[in-house]
Task: structure prediction
Amino acid sequence: FQAFVGREQCGGLPTSPLRWHISLRGPGRIPTWGETVEVAHQLRPGVPSAIGVPPCSLWLNLHPHVLRLWEVADDALLEEWRVNARGDTPT
Result:
């Protein structure tokens, strides 16, 4: 696998916040979920991330076999993960 890690402005404005970003490319295929999780936890332990799926009209570029993970800063989503991690009933 190849993995690239960066911290970039997320939002397109000079005042946009910085977010961690991992690009992960598999050997002739998209990485599996297990491989993706392993790399994410090795490279950025403790940083919650998600794989975005934007509409096709917002795709930036197309690279075969690459997944991109972005640091999550959505308070509602992070709280949902915390609640479910404790074994609470999902809402």
Notes: The chain has a mean pLDDT of 86. Residues 33-43 form the longest helix (11 residues). The helical segments are 33-43, 75-85. The longest strand covers residues 2-9.
